[in-house]
Amino acid sequence: MAIADAKLSATALGVGISDNQTLTGWTAGAGIEWMFLPHWSLKGEYLYRSFGGQTFFANQFAPGIQTGTLNINSGQVGINYHF
Q1: What integer pLDDT is reported at residue 83 of this predicted model?
Q2: For tag attachment on the chain, is the N or C end more exposed, with fewer CB atoms within 10 Å?
Q3: CA angle (20 as vertex; 16, 23 as ends), nearest 5
Q4: What is the rounded CA–CA span in Å between residue 81 and residue 22?
Q5: Could you write out the DSSP letters of every residue in 11-36?
Q6: pLDDT for 58-83, tens place per residue?
Q7: How far apart are CA 60 and CA 28, in angstroms?
Q8: Burial class (CB in 10 A: 0-12, 13-18, 19+), 51
Q9: Residues 45 and 74: beta-carbon distance below 8 Å
Q10: All structural domains of the chain with their residue ranges
Q11: DSSP state of 60
C-alpha cells in the first residue's frame, strides 16, 4: 500500500486557495545487495508507486477539480555497514 499527501494551491489577484488530499495506491519494487567486504555491502533499489485520481476543491467549486493518476518511479543506492 502507498500513501501520499498531495496539496494543490492557486493564487489569483492576491487571493490564494489550497486543498490537501490523501492519495492511496499501491507500490511494487525490487532490490539487490552485495557484500563486498566482511562488514560492508552495496545496495540498489527500485520502487514504482501508483496513486488513483482525487477531486480537489469540491467544497469550493462544485464539482471540483479532478486529477489524473499519479505514477512515481524512484531508485536509490546505498552503502551499509553490518555490525
Answers
A1: 94
A2: C
A3: 150
A4: 36
A5: EETTEEEEEEEEEEEEEEEEEEEEEE
A6: 777 788 888 888 999 999 999 999 99
A7: 35
A8: buried
A9: no
A10: 2-81
A11: T
